[in-house]
Amino acid sequence: MAVTKVTDEATEGDLEARIDTALRLAFPLLPSGALTHQTTFSFKFGGKTITVDGEKRKAASARSDVLVEYSGKRLAVLELKRPGLPLSVEDNEQGLSYARVLFPSPPLVVVTNGLEFRLLETHTGQEWKPAERTDQTIANLIKNAALVATHDLKNAVGTLMGTNPDVWVQAVGQTSDAAIAELTGTWGARLLPFVEGFQIPRKATAVIKILIKKGEQRLLIVHGQPMSGKSNVLREFAQSSSSHGNAVLFIESDGETSILQQVADLLNEELDWPVSKDEARTWLRTIARGDGPILVLAIDGIGLNFDDLRDEISDLCSDSFGKKLSIVVELDSVIAERAVKSSDRRRLSKIGRKSAGVPVLPLDLSEFNEASRELWNHKIGISKGGHLSPEYRLPWVLRAVASYLVKPIDKTKSSYIRMIPSTLSLNLVTVTRKSFEGEHELRRRFQGVAKSLIDDALSDSRSIPLKLESISSFMVLRNTLENHLSNADVETLIEDGLLKPILHDSGEPILLVRMPELAASEVAHVLSKQLKKRADLEDFERAKWLCDVAAAIPFGDIVAAQAIIDNALNGNGLSIGMVERLLDGKVEIRNFEEGAEMAMDMPGIGVVQAKYCSDGLIVNDGRGGEHILRLNPGDGSDGAFSDINAWLILSHLGAIRMGAFEVGNEDEMLRVDPAILLEVGSCITVLRRPPVDPNMNGIHTHDFPGQISIVCHHEGVVEVITNSILQYLGSERSEDWIDLALSRDSMPLLARIDIALRQLATTSDAELSSFAQDMLDRKIRPAFSAGCAIPD
């Protein structure tokens, strides 16, 4: 083990005087000035560098550790105790341990309090009693020490790791850093969970720190939906350990191996400290019963095997084990719910009584703003209105859409910023396909996953809770997947962490998809092939089939629109009849009837049953209690939209340049996308996929008679159709299209054009900005002033 000299200049003050006195006492016959010393030195555990600061340690433990050299060669480790304190066996072990982990190792250890001293041989641990301590004796000792083949390094490391917080806290921190580094890659390394240089500060991390400090529960369960950012919360907590005074050992669990064995394996791999499972337990118990900082095991990836490890976790966080050890484990919400409840689900389990839950929800507004600042550091901005996008409140979505925009920062272009559109678009699929080019086997397996997702989406056999949860998270029934992939393929995806097996509350074994963007891309690919097979069906049937799938899966509108595009690009052309049938699905608001029953998936609560009455919604909380959710008649909350998926699909298609030949006139191609923008842009209500979290519904709107509701321009672009209008006007700059739109006398269409032009007027493209401002001044504002007619 190599030792690195950290201090080059002699320190001053009382400590220096005491060191000089101690050395003269130990080596009285050596020439004056022959001995030098360092109060700060470093050594390595495996590849980890541990620094010992004698000055700092003196203040913390009433003794200093000093490295002594004779004529430039290591002679001794000096354990210098405060005057008046007796020498102990622990002092001997401490000094010997330091000496044994250094390479080359000094042959002696000096333990002294300034009045009495001990000279110990590093190799044997016995007292060194030469006839005289001359310079020749010392020279021979150093020479002979170099011939010693081995030391009891394992015991030396064990002593330092168990009794010296200055050592084990550094070792644990660097071990965690190494474990996290293995899981960290570039923006394009999508199979790794962490991005180098990108970390969204989460409130859940702050909650963990507070709860650990209070010490009331020594087991914390970080829970949330799949891909909600739980692992990144553990990463943030581990990497900020120095700021909260604790040591955090980050463990990437394989979900099956004993936690103690995983600790032992990590210590062996990262510190070259070959300990057994039982020895790892002894080490943890020593720390837990010590008077140093709290050691926190941050365990990522246990998953479905939590039940197999619950007894071990319960033991590790018990008072009998020791109060200076805490456990933080991340679990998907479904597994966490089972972990804290008894088998009959009516009371808390033993784990539930010992633990506290830390939920990881979609980014709230302040967290989103933090994420925006992090992206800005990478020269990426989010267009106005992006803060209201439910999809952008999912950290993995931000990473996916930003990954294609991140470029090496060019300091000569400090003002050059790449912008993310304010609504999630077909670009999600484009970016994903570029990221996974060449991953043929992975894509083949995910096409099997995609086929299974489509089968499940169209199946009536799934439970209602599973259907509702499947709208926001990609999950597939295991039995369905086995119809499309071999057992070997399924196991490969599980082993690679791309599928996560759980037992759903309904009792159905399902697999959570851990690469949702790839799932979305491959579902679109499979749907395009199935559209081709359905070419002989009526356009209405094809459109309904596609909308049914879109309504039942995450990002269904994006997936379905991409499927139509893929089908057209694969030589099958664009089916104008199908587009017309999608346009027929005009959005309407239908009021609830008295006694209407429904089920809702509420974040943090789960699926609840509700019934409509004159006073509002009667919500059953699942525990036998009922609550009234008051509604405001007339504001739309006492009704529901008709199927909006058709127009959401068209909202995305409106951003794509599309054309078709008129029947009987094959010489002239007519543009389709401007017509889509005119029709869908006239929708009388806010047109966006309902967010899973009701708190994300808060958008400022202006309401008019006839149940017309338009987005306030202060909100920015929050609808896909508005973003598509923005893209069209940004590329075409068509005054004729604006005139055609104004001729429709549609207040919703006028409002959407107004918002799009306002955004374009702020662009750095001077010509485009001028066009947008001109259209606002000459066309849009006069139309508002004239009082655009509102359709019946």
Write the layout of secondary structure elements.
Elements: E1 4-5, H1 14-26, E2 35-38, E3 40-45, E4 48-53, H2 54-61, E5 63-70, E6 73-81, H3 89-101, E7 108-112, E8 117-121, H4 135-145, H5 153-163, H6 165-182, E9 184-185, E10 194-195, H7 203-214, E11 219-224, H8 230-239, E12 247-252, H9 259-271, H10 277-288, E13 295-300, H11 306-316, E14 325-332, H12 333-340, H13 350-354, E15 355-359, H14 365-376, E16 380-382, H15 395-403, E17 418-420, H16 427-435, H17 440-457, H18 464-470, E18 475-477, H19 478-481, H20 487-495, E19 499-503, E20 509-513, H21 516-533, H22 539-552, H23 556-572, H24 576-584, E21 589-591, E22 597-602, E23 606-613, E24 616-620, E25 626-630, E26 639-641, H25 645-653, E27 659-662, E28 665-671, H26 673-680, E29 701-704, E30 708-711, H27 720-732, H28 735-742, H29 747-760, H30 766-786
Parallel strand pairs: 6-7, 9-10, 11-14, 11-15, 12-13, 13-14, 16-17
Antiparallel strand pairs: 1-3, 2-5, 3-4, 5-6, 7-8, 18-20, 19-20, 21-26, 22-23, 23-24, 24-25, 27-28, 29-30
Helix pairs in contact: 3-5, 5-6, 5-10, 6-9, 7-8, 9-10, 15-16, 16-21, 17-21, 21-23, 22-23, 22-24, 23-25, 24-25, 25-26, 25-27, 27-29, 28-30, 29-30
Keywords:
single chain, 792 residues, alpha/beta, 5-stranded mixed beta sheet, 5-stranded parallel beta sheet
Describe this entry's structure for a reader.
This protein is of the alpha/beta class and 792 residues long. It is built from 30 helices and 30 strands.
Number of helices: 30
The number of E-state strands comes to 30
In order across it, which strands form the biggest sheet? 2-5-6-7-8
Largest sheet: number of strands, sense, barrel closure: 5 strands, mixed
Radius of gyration, whole Å? 34 Å
Q: Gap between N and C termini, in Å?
A: 84 Å
Structural class: alpha/beta
Q: Would you identify the regions where 5 or more consecutive residues have pLDDT less than 50?
A: 8-12, 146-151, 633-641
Portion in helices:
40-55%
Average of per-residue pLDDT values:
84
Name the shape in a single word.
Answer: elongated
Q: Please state roughly what percent of the residues sit in beta strands, choosing from under 5%, 5-15%, 15-25%, 25-35%, 35-45% or over 45%.
A: 15-25%
